[in-house]
């Protein structure tokens, strides 16, 4: 991003959730009900973690693979979103990451 754009950028919260595809509707609902204006979904995510390797290939449909949902929200919404996702992760494996991010058009979020 050009230096002059950084001075007009706003800091928001970026939430990334990797979860089994069958739980995407629940996470999507949490994001939207807590004030997120949108999200990006990526299916077929692969990786390696404490429970071993997870392949990105689809077996039969998108519910049998890992998915990632990414959303950018005002920081005041991030805490309630993460609290809801953590409840879901109490019973299912997955990862939630939260970071600050700069955006050039904060009115989109």
Can you offer a commentary on this structure?
There is one protein chain. With 109 residues, the protein is of the alpha+beta class. It has one domain: Alpha-Beta Plaits. Helix content is 27%, strand content 38%. The protein contains three helices and six strands. The protein has a four-stranded antiparallel sheet with strand order 2-5-1-6, covered by helices on one side. Strands 3-4 form a two-stranded antiparallel ribbon. Strand 3 (47-49) and strand 4 form a beta hairpin. Helix 2 (24-33) runs antiparallel to helix 3 (75-89). The chain starts with a helix and ends in a 6-residue tail after the last strand.
List its salient traits.
alpha+beta, about 25% helix, Alpha-Beta Plaits, 3 helices, two-stranded antiparallel ribbon, four-stranded antiparallel beta sheet, about 110 residues
What's the gist of this structure?
The protein is built from three helices and six strands. With 109 residues, the protein is of the alpha+beta class.
Helices and strands in order:
Elements: H1 3-6, E1 10-20, H2 24-33, E2 40-45, E3 47-49, E4 52-54, E5 66-73, H3 75-89, E6 94-103
Antiparallel strand pairs: 1-5, 1-6, 2-5, 3-4
């Amino acid at each position: 991003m050009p230096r002059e754009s950084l001075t007009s950028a706003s800091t928001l919260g970026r939430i990334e959730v990797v979860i089994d595809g069958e739980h995407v509707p629940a996470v999507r609902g949490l994001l939207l009900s807590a004030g997120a204006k949108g999200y990006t979904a990526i299916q077929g995510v692969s990786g390696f973690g404490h429970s071993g390797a997870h392949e990105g290939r689809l077996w039969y449909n998108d519910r049998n693979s890992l998915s990632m949902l990414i959303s950018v929200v005002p920081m005041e919404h991030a805490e309630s979103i993460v609290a809801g996702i953590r409840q879901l992760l109490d019973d299912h494996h997955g990862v939630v990451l939260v970071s600050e991010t700069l955006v050039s058009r904060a009115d989109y979020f």
